[in-house]
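Case study: Delta-aminolevulinic acid dehydratase.
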Amino acid sequence: MGNYFNRHRRLRTNASMRALVRETYLHAEDLIYPFFVVEGENKKEEIASMPGVYQLSLDNVHKEMEEVVRLGIKSVIVFGVPNEKDEKGSQAYCDTGITQRTISQIKESFPELVVIADTCLCQYTNHGHCGVVENGQVLNDESLELLARTAVSQAKAGADIIAPSNMMDGFVSAIRHGLDEAGFIDVPIMSYAVKYASAYYGPFRDAAHSSPQFGDRKTYQMDPANREEALREAQSDLEEGADFLIVKPALAYLDIIRDVKNNFNVPIVAYNVSGEYSMIKAAAQNGWVDEKAIVMETLIGMKRAGVDLILTYHAKDVARWLKED
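Here is what the predicted structure looks like once written out:
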């Protein structure tokens, strides 16, 4: 008589067998590549806290997009960093702003790329908050008009998707109404629906020059301790017209990603944020981890948790590794 127990190792005996039964895959098409554009010419400045990520001037964007296309990445998201900032973030909705000019240039040269516009005010305001500020308070309803104006301006420039990240109540409704009124009924909204007040954003704020000049963002971004609140936020955005739902950050919120995926039948996006990226980069540079192995494991974990797309600063490296494999 034999030993009667399950021999799960039968399906792990060699690489071909493991590939045959693999459940989760990561493809270049799953990746959204974020990049930062600044004013001026002939600029390519590495961000100290984000090794391998650069602030690019508009004249260097074409070369960057050539590489993105060559690697098989299908979508990018633009973060514009203006020289001039004011209380109401007027460069965010300026038709000749740095973000709008970047979008137009990319769509003219690379029409097949899906260009996503980050729609917020924080990197355009002199106080660094994501809305209108009065007497030290971030005003919700007064911010909605400016966010809608920003979205319409980005759509006019050629943005394929609007991705509002401000976390004001009613922002999806305001932007959907603004886009529809302006004739952009076919432009979808990729909502930062579930965005936590996280410590993982630090390097991004260096890159986008968007740190709050006073206080914090805890009155509009979510408490990291909350789980059920994420479902309320996601439900509201879908009812208001969102086409995609983003969960941000990703790595410490895989349970939230799975909850959102289980409850809502729309494409789910994970934002693999700057702090998550920088920790791996720092450890790899010190020789403490195998960068390729740990990045691939991290991103496959996000796919396994339920995301359809991953917005990640690792995108070019991952696409390159996938080609090599």
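For the exam, be able to explain this: The chain has one domain: 25-324.
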